[in-house]
Amino acid sequence: MTLLDVQNLTTYYTIGRGSVKAVEGISFQLEKGEAMGLVGESGCGKTTAALSLLRILPYNGRIVTGKIVFKGTDIVQLSEDKLRKEIRWKGISLIFQGAMNALNPVYRIEEQIVEAIQLHESNVKKKEARERVGKLLEMVGVDKSRARNYPHEFSGGMRQRAMIAMALSSNPDIVIADEPGTALDVIVQAQVLKLLDELKKRLDLALLMITHDLSLVAEVCEKLAVMYAGNMAEYGNVLNLFKKPLHPYTQDLIGAFPNIHSAKRLMISIPGSPPDLLSPPSGCRFHPRCKYAMDICKKERPELKKVAENHYVACHLATR
Ligand code: SF4
User: Fold this and answer.
1) Which of 112, 265, 272, 275 could form a disulfide with 289 if both were Cys (CB 3.0 to 4.6 A apart)?
2) pLDDT, greater one: 267 or 104
3) CA of 272 to the centre of ligand 1 (A)
4) In terms of DSSP H, where are the helices of the chain?
5) CB of 147 within 8 A of CB of 109?
6) Cα 66 to averaged position of ligand 1 atoms, centre (Å)
7) Which atom of ligand 1 is nearest to the CA of 249?
8) Every domain of the chain and the residues it spans
9) Domain 2-221 has CATH 3.60.15.10
10) Confidence grade of residue 96 (pLDDT, cut at 50, 70, 90)
11) Does ligand 1 come within 6 angstroms of the Cβ of 248?
């Protein structure tokens, strides 16, 4: 069952010098119980895409065009009141980037999760919300006796678990995890990842994992979406993309990661740097860095086209 159908989503930020074209024309679907990794270099529009899904963009951000259809309802057209009462947290929730900074240091963990519950479910009494917090903390592997602690009394991993508990507090269908491993050491990162995977299976959650770390995606996700400079470069089944990446950017991205199962080789790096999205390159935005760039690449933006079952690519070379 398709829970989320994002069609041609375009989001810009207005700044003094013009419009930053942070996300332009991206499309993807998320099924019930499915995990999708959204990857790409910093500044490629991953977080903007996630914030657009919940319509919690900064004041200068706006969805210019496109549809975000969640369970048959277009979120883009929904009133702010309906969005808050019906979608945010109850339908789609978000584990914010950097648990260290996302929790308020002067409030107890319990109070912060209770507040999140009551904000989105106004009919829930404080006593009931507190009981829910205890259960949620146990579910994410934190003893409920720690509910009255302040964030500084938690380790980094426990704070990330508390953020996950908060994201699950209103039983959402989809959880967006924005860089869930950031600032955690590799052992704790693996534990958090395992927890997310377990919760996904136990609660039949759909998971949208935003990361620049392909190894995290390979561990947990069934689907992979690769973004470059605000565009969708390649999208589909994670095995298809890892085995046979067709977009030169995906190939380079995978080539830049070590694989402990294959022969030793030198890591490749992608020459150049991502473009300025105030005035992105014409045609394919990757053309200034692409070793296969052709004339057409500078003129025509490649559309995302189906090349095989569960495999879509936006590249003139792969789809001609
Ligand atoms: Fe390279 Fe052209 Fe494909 Fe863009 S469309 S990735 S420039 S070959």
Assistant:
1) 272
2) 104
3) 15
4) 46-54, 80-82, 99-102, 109-120, 126-139, 156-167, 186-203, 214-220, 238-243, 248-255, 295-299, 316-319
5) yes
6) 24
7) 6
8) 2-221
9) no
10) confident
11) yes
